[in-house]
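Trying the structure run again after the queue cleared.
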Amino acid sequence: MNRVATNSEAETAILLRMAESRTALLAANSTPPLVATEGGLTWPRTASTIASLADAPRVTLLLALCVGTIVLGPRRTVGIAGRSGIAAWLGGTVRKVILRSV
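Done. Tokens:
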């Protein structure tokens, strides 16, 4: 009987932590409200442009291309990026075809 009480207490504790985590995640992911200004509604400027660019998708790819162009030269960078891009595109297409057929 003691083990059942311990398991139910552990389950309750886990569920409480999950609820707190869910609340924190929802608060972190909520979009900021629009701010009314004289010119109309605008988004608040809480993040700088550089910070928003760092969070944008594919920034690492763009940065790698820039560094590759500087280090290897534009011709080699375009060749390497082209081969990698074609390989990624073909792999994604094959994966989609296989998943559709299954």
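Residues 2-29 form the longest helix (28 residues). Worth checking whether this holds up in the mutant runs.
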